[in-house]
Each structure stands twice: as structure tokens, then as C-alpha cells.
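Section 3.1: Structural characterization of target chains.
Under the original work plan, the team committed to producing a structural model for every single-chain target entering the pipeline before any wet-lab resources were allocated. The record below documents one such target. The sequence was received from the expression subgroup and is listed exactly as submitted; it comprises 293 residues.
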Amino acid sequence: MTLSSHTDPLSHSLQRLSTAELHGLGAQARLGLFDSGLGGLTVLRRLLCRRPGHPCIYVGDTARLPYGARSPQEIRTIAAEVVSWLRGQGAEAIVMACNTTNALALDVAQREAGVPVFGLIDSVARQIQQQRVGVLATAATASSGAYSRALRAQREGMHVVEVGCPAFVPAVERHELDSQALRSAAEHYLAPLLEARVEAIVLGCSHYPLLQPMLRQLLPSDVQLIDPAEALVSLVLSLLPADQRPASLQADLSACEVVCTGDASAFSHAAGRWLGFAPEVEAISLQSEAQGL
């Protein structure tokens, strides 16, 4: 499988409405979500608290964690493989619960899916109103400049500073959320954002909302922390028919399948820390099932 390179996967995504945005989704449309590991569960949890019991399938690609340290070509290949697998499982829309693949492979996902694809970056870019914005992200996402392009496309003259944070994802996966080493790394990553006097900081990796308590302690109270999952979930839910069931404080995964590419037992145990219970997890093997692009 050879994937064509693409200089800017987000180049037209903000200007073009997806099929779903034009026509909506069916009430029981199965949503496929994916991430390199636990991080995307922050998106899944928000979705299934607001729409309990909606049919979903979640892929934690733990065998290839972390995505942020991989090359753009590897990330594009991974995105094609995961999206192809999700489509094979009957996903009727793809929710990219991973900023890194969103930044570097949105076009790949759109071509491979054949169904509506929703990403974190363009969803949150539509809503941010501040003029000076910082972005904490994986090294790959920060290097791509995807957030800067998406935000400036929405608001002319916006000042955006993106910082890669390679220590964050491994720490979250290990459930080390407030060690001294992590706090020191966070202070280092935040320094250029504070120097730039940012008004808001986007948590540009779906793992990072789990670090909000620590980050909040290190930031001035007037700097807003923004979780893109909120905008993404709001967009997806706006395209589903209204549901009469009330929102819940705990995610209802009764119609959700959870799989991972690594140790299923370990993933289930770790997921339980974020979901409030350990879900049933099946191990899968992802091969090069994607079409040549």
C-alpha cells in the first residue's frame, strides 16, 4: 500500500461541508472512533454521557502508541488502516478522536471512509474566539502546523503558538498524572505560551484533558483551557436526531464495542480509571487493509 503525500490535509476541510452536515445521520448510525490509546476515551466518554447507549466502536491502537513520535507517512498509513477496519465493522461515520491523525491524515481518512468523517481540529477551530491562542500537542501535530492553519482560517490575524509535548502521552498511559518530572516538563512546555501572553490554550491531544488539574495549577486563572472534544461531540450530536434520554454523569457503553491492538486486559484495566468501570475489550490485529491512495 502506497499513500500519496499531501502537503496540507486540512487545506479545504473548513470550507467544505461533509455529507453528514448537509443531510444528518440516522438515529442509530454506528460511530467509529479511534486513537493511539486511552486518550480518545475522553471523546467517547463525553459522547456517551450526552447520548447514552448510542452504537459505537472504539479502537485503541496501543500496539503503535504513541502516534506523535511517528513520521507523517507512518501516521497516514495507520489512519488508512484503522479507518478501513472501522468501515469493515459497519461504522457509518468516523470520529477522529486523535489530533495527530486529524492533523496529518484527514484527507486519507476521508478518502478511505466513504462515509462522513469528523475531526477535532476543524470542529474546535470554528468556536474559538480569542485572539492569542496556545496549543499543546504531540510533536507530530505541532510540527504540522495544522492548528495554526485551521484557527487562522477562521479568524484573521490570530496569534497561535503550538508546542510539542512528547512527555505527556506516555505519562497518561502510565497513569502518572502529577509526578514532579511531569510537572517540570509541563512548566517547560507552558513557558513559550505564557511568554506569548496567550488567552486560551487548546489541549491538542485527546490524552491531555486528563492533565487538566495539573495544568490548571500551573496557569494563571484567566487563561482558558479548551478541550476540542466538546466541540467535536457537539457537532456530531447536532447531526443526529434528538434523543429523549437524559444525559448521564457516567458513559453508557451498552451498545459500544471496544477493541485494542495490544494487551486487551491491560487496556480494559487502564480504561476503567477514566470510564468509572472496566469495559470488555477485544484484541484485534490491524493489517494493511486500506485501499492504495
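The two ends are 8 Å apart (CA to CA).
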